[in-house]
Amino acid sequence: MNEHVETTKAYIKTHKTELAIGVSIVLGLIVLLAVIGMVIYNSTPKVVYQPAKACELLTMNEAKDLMGDTTLNSNSRDPVQNGNIATSNCGYTDGNPQTEDMIVAAIIVRSGINDKGVEQNKTEFSAGRPTENVEIVKDLGDDAYFNARNGQLNVRDGKNWIILSYGLGSASTSNTAEQTIELARKVIPQKSV
Fold it and tell me: pTM to 2 decimals?
């Protein structure tokens, strides 16, 4: 055992410079990785506001109230963050085996996860409003309009931009404002006047 210790000491003594360089390189790499980690952490947008989950806004029970007991969940995605916005979606069908006659209720939620995201939603909501085939909807969220061209109701409500459609899945342009507003009233709480 004593001989092994002596051999190790002799090795360290003769290779002192190489060992010092090796330790310096390892420590340098650790510091470099720590700096890279901090830069990545600091450059990622911080989640200040938890994003809304579309299927929590439009539940299966609410969809069944609209479409009946044969309602099926056809699409569900938890929020996915992209910059300062997190997007989730949820969809239901009435279970009709004739796809051209199938009724679909769908919701997409763009949540601002911080103040920059909330401001981005406001700006893009206004900029995305078409100038034709649009019906302004009162008393729904902070701002709302129905786009007849694509059969979608767009609602800005607090930190969220909510896009809803309700009607024939094969012909979304046949969706009516009345039907889609009925869906929205289940999803978006009424503002007290």
Answer: 0.75
Q: Are 162 and 57 in contact (CB under 8 A)?
A: yes
pLDDT tens digits, 90-106: 999 998 888 888 889 99
CATH of domain 54-187: 3.40.1000
- 156 pairs with which residues across the strands? 143, 161
Q: Could you tell me the two tokens for 56?
A: 């929590």
Give, rounded to a whole angstrom, the gap between the first and last alpha carbons of the chain.
87
Q: Where are the domains of the chain?
A: 2-43, 54-187
Q: Which long-range contacts (CB under 8 A, 24 or more apart) does 78-81 make?
A: 78/53, 79/51, 79/52, 79/53, 79/109, 79/111, 81/45, 81/47, 81/51, 81/113
Beta bridge pairs of residue 110: 87, 161
**Helix or strand or coil: residue 35?**
helix
